[in-house]
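Team,

Forwarding the record for the chain on the shared tracking sheet. I've put the sequence and predicted structure together so nobody has to dig through attachments.
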Amino acid sequence: MNTYLEKFYKAVEGLKDCDLEVLGMQHLKALLKTSYLEDLIHDSLSKLNLDPNYYPTHASLNHWHILNTNAFSLTIIKMKKEHQTKYINSYSFDKIIVPITGDILYNSYKQINPYPENILDKSKRLIPVETKKVLTKNTPLMIKKYESVFSYQGALNDDVMILSFSCKNTSSYGWEYDAKTLHPLRLVSNSKQSARLEHTCKLLGALGHISSLPNLFHLLNNSHHNVRWAAASAIMTINFNKGIEALHLLEHDTHPEIVESVKNGLHQISTLNID
């Protein structure tokens, strides 16, 4: 780690309650005045010259993760000059973004009371605040979770690199909105474990093996409602009678959408002529 990043790391490591808005912004602005990026690149290249198997940091074609602590992450993201999206995603964590190679355009919105955050209320549209706003190079922008929503709209000149400073004190779900209507579409889980378990349930349901049932029934008690519902759906796919049993176990679930879905499902089953 180069000197500037090491100093920044020590400064933010002890921040309490993910205070990005005041102290985090202060330390980030100080970092931006240094040659941290050039030093980081030179440091990585020198190590690469010494060891051809050296990997500088966890990275992809579009993301370069340059700093991770228990509370924060610092990432460089490459964005295309031209950008169109069908969706707008709210952040479930506080975040500061800084364009570091050029100016960018963005839209900002206000999110209306998305609480509880794990229950999607489709009547709560985003409220537009600013459209095609210019964020100039090396200017930090604070994005507060469940309050302000940021939507990248492209760069003014070439593809651009954006520095992202994020708090890891995240909630379980973010909301995804339709970019045209601004209505909520779906919940997006921020838990890798729950997302993987949900997809595993769907896979087990598609495979249809009876041996999967004990594990699926166990997942009906999972703390994430998307996992509980995916498990019940998989059980129903594998064995109809066991599926009915799973629905009854979720009749008094803590999540209202599951309770409503179970009620509707059991009603539909009651109308079937099953011998």
